[in-house]
Amino acid sequence: MRFDFYLLHPSIVVNGNRIEFVQFVRNVLVQDPEAMILLEDPNDFPEEWPLAEHYREFVRCVDVYALTNPRCFGKIIGESVFSSARRYLQHGKSVCLMAFPYPELRSLCCVLQSSVHSGQNAAAVFFDEAEEVSTIDLVKCDGKLSFFDIKNVSLEYKPLEDVETLKNRADFPQLEPCTKEDTPSSRIYTYQNGTQKMILKSARVDKFPLPKDHQIKVQKLLRLQEWFTGNGIENALPQKIVMEDGAMRGVAVHWIDGMPFESLCDDTVRKNFLQKNRCWPSSANQLYLLIRLFATAWEYHAAGAYFSDIKGDNFLVTSDGRVIPIDTDGFSYGAHYSSCPRQEMVFSPKEDRRKAFLQNTEIESYSLLVMTYRFLMNMNAPNETPKNKFPLKTIQNDPESISNSERGKFLVKRWKELPEYLRNALYQGLVENKPLPAEAMLQLLVRHHLELTGSQDAALKQWAEQKPRVCPLREESAKPPKLFASIQLKKADASGNRTGPAFDTPKENTADKKPPNPASQSEASGSPKRKINMPSEGAHSPQRKSHPSREPSRGQKMEKKKSSRGIWLFVAATVLAVLVFLWLSYQSGQTQMAASPEVQESAAASEELPPDIYGEDLSGLREDLSITTDVDVVNLSVGQSATIAVSAAGNLPEIWTYRVRFPSDVISTDWGEWMEDGITNPLTVTALKPGNYTITVYFMDNGSDKPQVLAYRTVDVTITT
Predict the structure, then answer these.
(1) Is the per-residue pLDDT at 198 higher than 50?
(2) Which CATH number is associated with domain 163-254?
């Protein structure tokens, strides 16, 4: 059987036999020298994912093999191999699907069944580490795709006694029931494995023993767990199988300390969660949790694992914002499926629910969209139910009919505040049953985050907006940005002030209550006063004259008052405000009267440390504090200007300032107004002469007579004519 396209799933890196794959490809090329073998572009994956690293190495090996047949190998950029396969089948092409997981094959079977094309070929090929290569004709199969050789089942685990007696065994110390986590089919226990807290999930008596195919699947999930753990990915995948009388009784998994995602769909709970974990409750930070959800989904899908029983309670969010799926023994994995989606998490038309009982990719994507909608709409469900009188279809198409209630007004307002492309994706997915896959939704969420924060990260923007295409395997494509290095939770210090990376939301979602000003928070809390030293408009110090080869340092001076006094009387508050104003004015005058030393420009910007330009001791550079800029390189023509957002992250001192060093005969700079966070300040750079230059931004501790450089950052400037 010959095919127009042979599509390889990236999960082969985790659970495939590569030797069998190579042999299969050789046979294909012998039979059909014009065959087109397509792989997913490894550079589409975020760079920091362990799967991406392994997959890139695999593609490099394939690329070397493809030297003799370069026309036969291509890579798909901007979409998954599943999405490509779906398009090809819809257009009547024949495809061979290599190492595809079961939910994706189920979805493609549905495409074939509804296809108007006759004589179409489609097949699935599996390269299993533990079994021989298996092939299924998708056109002729019944759509269930289930195949297991029970005779080959091998479970090498020591049988254990009944669960009630496990507490007395040495390998299950301190076993305690966790009845609040019990399910209709399982009982949940906790125990200690050394320093690691564990969960034991045991089948109830009426559900014991578990089916043989379930045992095979969990065996393979054990290998996936080893791969995830070996690559530093925290997970709740099965750690071992618990046996009783030669049959599987349950599984043991790691305990994950986190908040259920379902709880975080409530606006108040979500903001309290962020504040409890010293994170600023901004719209961008809240969106970050959604980004993490879809990033997790994409990573598991790419490894061949689907969650199946998707609900908010089956995902835990850790204190640093990571999203970890639980109840993992119910996963659909590789060629093994699960059949337990919840009714409210499948397609809304009733006629689709029975069909959806067997898991497929569309059901997975739809369920994730339900979680997304509830998260963005303060726990509102998308479909009309006896308890929900505000379904999405009504909110979008007939908002006036529900605007007579406060809840209805709120939901309509919240919905309209979302960007149009996100509203379209949610509506088409939840109402029209056309959900986008996880990786496509992740692109939209990253785009929304970039807009909220005002980030100018060009690489991240390109990745978020790229369109699907196919190119030769050997053609270079740009590496993706380090997603979670650029998009992080914005931290707050102990007093509630913002810290952390420079990415935060300068324009808050109007549906959210605007966070209080850090200074006003400090006054209420009675924390120590924080001062930021800054001259008006970022101008040069008036006491100095400019020299052609010298440029005065630029100071930023800003005063913020914190007090523990409560304001009980209007008159007392007025007097206090006047005193503060006079004190701030005095301090500002004192700092501006002190002439800063002139700066001798130097070409030594490439040295390990910047030159000692202010006479400060550079030994005070600190690891717990850093300067961040939204760009590393600026490209300008003579006369052009660009603005750089300068911010600081970490343990900031009480009194501090930014300063900048630059060659004044070829570049001019100007500081702008402070942004809302009180930490970020725009620096405008204007090009005067062509060439390649470096500017250095310093973070200075101004709490003493002799300012100390605590951190610095360089930005390269290229100026053309």
Answers:
(1) yes
(2) 3.30.200
Closest listed residue to residue 460, CA positions, set 441, 481, 479: 481
Question: Which of 650, 645, 675 minimizes the C-alpha distance to 491?
Answer: 650
Q: Which two tokens stand for residue 311?
A: 């609900």
What would you report as the CA-atom Rg of the chain, rounded to the nearest whole angstrom? 30
SS3 of 440, please? helix
Q: Which amino acid is at 643?
A: T
Separation between Cα atoms, residue 194 and residue 136, nearest integer Å: 45
Q: Who's near 608: CB < 8 A, 6+ residues apart?
A: none
3-state secondary structure of 512: coil
Residue 491: phi and psi, rounded to 5, are: -85, 160
Task: At 83, list the tokens.
Answer: 């999405």
The answer to whether 52 and 481 are in contact (CB under 8 A) is: no
Q: Which of 314, 82, 310, 70 is nearest to 181 (CA)?
A: 314
Q: How do residues 58-73 score in pLDDT, each as one tens digit?
A: 998 888 877 778 888 9
pLDDT tens track for 420-434? 999 999 999 999 989
Q: For the segment 305-337, what is each residue's pLDDT rounded down to a tens digit?
A: 999 888 899 999 999 999 999 989 889 888 777
Q: Which has the closest alpha carbon to 433: 376, 369, 342?
A: 369
Which two structure tokens, joined as six digits, stand for 67? 């030297």
Are 696 and 605 spatial neighbours (Cβ–Cβ below 8 Å)? Answer: yes
For the chain, percent of residues with pLDDT exceeding 90: 26
Q: Distance between CA 693 and CA 603 in Å, rounded?
A: 9
Which pLDDT tens digit goes with each residue over 530-577? 233 333 222 222 222 222 222 333 333 333 333 344 444 555 655 565
Q: What contacts 640, CB < 8 A, 6 or more positions away?
A: 686, 687
CATH fold of the domain at 516-721: Immunoglobulin-like (2.60.40)
Q: Which two tokens stand for residue 6?
A: 């042979």
Domain boundaries, the chain: 5-147, 163-254, 259-468, 516-721
DSSP class of residue 665?
T
Task: Name the 3-class secondary structure at 282.
Answer: coil
- Count Cα neighbours of 68 within 13 Å in the Cβ-side half-sphere: 7
Q: How confident is the model at residue 517 (pLDDT cuts 50, 70, 90)?
A: very low
- Give residues with Cβ within 8 angstroms of 589, minimum separation 6: none
Interatomic CA distance for residues 678 and 680, integer angstroms: 6
Among 139, 118, 136, 133, which Cα is nearest to 20's? Answer: 133
Amino acid at 2: R
CATH superfamily placement of domain 259-468: Transferase(Phosphotransferase) domain 1 (1.10.510.10)
d(CA 629, CA 681): 10
Q: To which residue do tokens 């420009």 refer?
A: 601
The angle subtended at Cα 323 by Cα 198 and Cα 16, nearest 5°, is 80
Read out DSSP for 399-423? GGGGTTSHHHHHHHHHHHHS-HHHH
CA angle 313, 248, 209 (to 5 degrees): 90
Is residue 128 classed as helix, strand or coil in its secondary structure? strand
Question: Which residues are CB-neighbours of 654 under 8 A, at least 6 positions away?
Answer: 528, 529, 530, 531, 703
143-177 per-position pLDDT tens digit: 444 443 333 333 332 333 344 445 445 556 667 77
What is the longest distance spanned by two Cα atoms in the chain?
92
Q: How far is CA 72 from the centre of its chain?
A: 34
- Write down the pLDDT at residue 579: 62
Assign domain 5-147 one CATH number from 1.10.10, 3.90.25, 2.60.40, 3.40.50: 3.40.50
Q: How many CA atoms lie within 13 A of 23 on its CB side?
A: 9
> Which tokens in the block code for residue 677?
């966070």
Running DSSP on this structure, what letter comes out for residue 433?
A: S
